[in-house]
Amino acid sequence: MKKLTLLFIAALGLTVPVGADQTLKRPNILYIIVDDQSPFDFKFYNQRSQLDAPVIEKLAAEGMVIDGAYQMGA
Length: 74
Hints:
Elements (H helix, E strand, L loop, with lengths): L1 H14 L38 H9 L12
């Protein structure tokens, strides 16, 4: 068991690139998942919405909003 653990740790260490460029800027991705809420509750989809969510609205204004996502119901 101990050998298997050491082998796993060694294999995991080989997957990490040594000397990788740390200045590479990766995108930040934020998923907001809610249950039983319409996207039209937010003002960035519906200007007449009564919901006040300033932080989510600021994120949408400064980032990207996906308006064509679909899911197959459960």
